[in-house]
Specification:
Protein name: Putative ATP-binding cassette transporter
Distance between the termini: 68 Å
Subcellular location: Cell membrane
Shape: elongated
Strand order of the largest sheet: 6-9-10-3-11-12
InterPro entries: AAA+_ATPase, ABC1_TM_dom, ABC1_TM_sf, ABC_transporter-like_ATP-bd, ABC_transporter-like_CS, ABC_transpr_CbiO/EcfA_su, Cyc_pep_transpt_SyrD/YojI, ECF_ABC_transporter_ATP-bd
Number of domains: 3
Bound molecules: adenosine-5'-triphosphate
Order of helices and strands: HHHHHHHHHEEEHEEHEHEEHEHEEE
CATH superfamily of the largest domain: P-loop containing nucleotide triphosphate hydrolases
Largest sheet: 6 strands, mixed
CATH architecture of the largest domain: 3-Layer(aba) Sandwich
Number of helices: 14
Family: Belongs to the ABC transporter superfamily.
Membrane topology: Multi-pass membrane protein
Amino acid sequence: MEMLRQLLRDLDMDKGKFLLMLVLSALGTTMTIAVVNMALKREAGDGEFMFAVYFLLSIFLYSSAQRFVMMEVAKGAERMIAEQRRDILAATRAADYTSLQRIGRAPIYKAVTQETQTISNTLPMIVVGAQQSVLLIFMSFYIAYLSGVAFVLIGLFGIFAVWFHVTGLTGLRKRTEALKRTQNRLFEAFSGMLAGRKEIAFNEARGQDVVTHIQAQSGRTRANTGRIRRHWAKQYVLTQTLFYILLGVMVFVVPMFTETYHDVVIQATMAALFMIGSLSNVAQGIPAVNDTARALRTIHALNDQLRACEQAPDDEEPLPAERHPRTLALDAVGYAFQDSHGSPTFTLQPVDATFHRGKIAFITGGNGSGKSTLFRLMTGLVHPQEGRILIDGEPVPPEGFGAYRDRIGVVFSDYYLFRSLLGLDDVDPSRVSELLARFELTGKVELSDGAFTTTDLSSGQRKRLALIVALLQDPPILMLDEWAADQDPHFRKVFYRDILPSLAAEGRIIICISHDEQYFDIADSLYAMADGRMSKVR
Ligand SMILES: Nc1ncnc2c1ncn2[C@@H]1O[C@H](COP(=O)(O)OP(=O)(O)OP(=O)(O)O)[C@@H](O)[C@H]1O
């Protein structure tokens, strides 16, 4: 019930007018049947013209009101879905990195695709169900007016028919859910085969296993689809049979209880036949309420979860005004990963370090020593659990991390390269050409209409492009995580001997994670990490 209220709130439309139109559309249908019934009973030549006029008016009333209802609900549903998407987008954008990692991508994708699609599909069914309920009430009055006994019998029949239909549809929904699950597994298995095609190409037995697995999933999908088809067929036949039974009830059973029924048998039967379609629509609308409510609950729960992870909003002047800081310092910055029981699995011991303007610092260390963890802390992507980051001696406050990150040009080891130059207005094309030339990409890629002409480059070339994007912000601080790992020896030398020193000479603070010992001599300071501890080598 609460969800229904929430739904009405979310729908944001003129509820009074909507309800009125719902009633008018039902009234239009009832009037159409009543007029036809009266016309059938009339004597030849008795008011034919007037009946035709009433008939047309009833149809006009029904079609205009019904059109309004359907259009409004379609518009309302799409508006509501757009708002839900906008809310999720805003909350996702505002959530901090660690929380987003914890929530994962799947629930967000599911909310903005599957759940919104469910609402879009089921909402019209609910409205049609509601409208048909009103119609059923009107038709019941009409049948009661024709014959009290017919009214009672049809009422009992209607309750049974709706119960029967709802039970059938509930079973169908469960089977559809099961089918979705097997389909997802089938798609996952296929994606795995496509993603791992190189690995499969090198091992015949592995390829065979993958095919066997996919065939098994395909078999399950076929079995579930077959069950649904059989369920539908049974449901369809039984619904049609109910329809005939109702005819029998009207023609054979009702007259057993009343003497006067013969006069109205045609009218009452016709009205009852109209009710069958309505009963089926009402029955479809009942599970649709559940589906919509579940989808809405999922979306609202995700929104609440994301909102709870919002980062502190940025302050007006959270950092020292000078754009190029003289120092960036880590003051006992520490962090610990924990397992689901809260026990630490890896601890970055408090790190102290000071990095200077115009100087290059290297951090090195073995796999799993904590370099990337520290890197995420230094970039401000993850907030330190203890300690502080200081810019020119001033600690970066929680509401200053956005402004702090704005001063950093960064390329992560698992970076993502947007093809468009997002967030960069008025980029000087000559600066882009100059950087492309410096990174030896001239002729490979260009900038056109604010986007690179291609990102289909080698992995080393793509990484050069990622660094160009970072440099186009003219960042006073540059942080690179194993940037040179996939560069060839020639360009590695260009990068360490030429590019990095000149970027530092421009007055930037440069911090690189690197394993390239032969170039450690260019670093002004060198740090080593082992088991979550950082020590200064020089
Ligand atoms: N998201 C995470 N959740 C839990 N533990 C993590 C997570 N990320 C990293 N760790 C753990 O933290 C430790 C340090 O990982 P980190 O990625 O910082 O190492 P690294 O020095 O960058 O290693 P590599 O050189 O292999 O990239 C590892 O033992 C790892 O298991």
